[in-house]
Amino acid sequence: MPNNDVSFIELNARKRASHLLDAGSFRELLGPFEKITSPWLEKQGIVPEFDDGMVIAKGTIDGKPTVVIAIEGIFQGGSMGEVSGAKMAAALELAAEDCRQGKLTQAVLLLETGGVRLQEANLGLAAIADIHAAISDLRRYVPVVGISTGTVGCFGGMSIAAGLCSYLIVTREARLGLNGPQVIEQEAGIEEYNSRNRPFIWSMTGGEVRYETGFVDALVKDSLAQVKQAMKQCLDKGVPAVFRSQQHDYYLNKLMAVDTTTQVDSDSAKQLFAKGGHQ
């Protein structure tokens, strides 16, 4: 990493958003001074945060109107609750409305999240559903770029949000999967998935294998400069002709070819989802 560069992973959500936007353009919406907190956490003995772990920033990237939505992974594992989810969904919905009014507003999502906040259960799930709908709406007009770098990863319903993005950027340290390692181990047994076997986990859900199997569009080092460069390249591509989430036949045919009599490993996954086979 160049001496004048910094680690993207070590930045908190607010600094990540600020660094990605053009200098001087960062403007936070519903920030901590608004003191909009989850009404449910204190009732369960959990100290809330004034932004509920969700940073919403408006500004520009290369002069183009942009909303950057950054999840703070160190607060409740980046989990999505009623308030944080509503903030994210509303920001995306307003960006889509701007687009319909002729003010194209692109979006960048910084996804460090374990998915739904268990303490808020159905409220969090409903918010994530709203996020999915909002991404699907907005991406028709402008690119929606997802970025996941570490260390929390991107799991649960928010991994579906990542899959709906126009483009997805990861680092080698990132992880992307529908279910987290501990959930898989709990349901399928340690013989199927050992959540303490870190090399195995990263070989299956880490950023590098996700890139090699075509589930993400760019693999970068833990570098603010590289993340920013890849983000701008994705934004410059514009709206994809076909979204990854629309390629049903391609992925269904691949899944039908899985040999369920043996445990899938990283080599067989790479062979099955050979990079370049999708559109």
UniProtKB/TrEMBL annotation:
Record domain CoA carboxyltransferase N-terminal: where: 1-243
GO MF annotation terms: acetyl-CoA carboxylase activity; carboxy-lyase activity; transferase activity
Entries under Gene3D superfamilies matching the protein: 2-enoyl-CoA Hydratase, Chain A, domain 1
Keywords: Transferase
Entry-linked Pfam families: Carboxyl_trans
SUPFAM superfamilies reported for this sequence: ClpP/crotonase
GO biological process: carbohydrate metabolic process; fatty acid biosynthetic process; malonyl-CoA biosynthetic process
NCBIfam families, alphabetized: malonate_beta, PRK07189.1
Protein name: Malonate decarboxylase beta subunit
Organism: Orbus hercynius
Top-level taxonomy: Bacteria, Pseudomonadati, Pseudomonadota, Gammaproteobacteria, Orbales
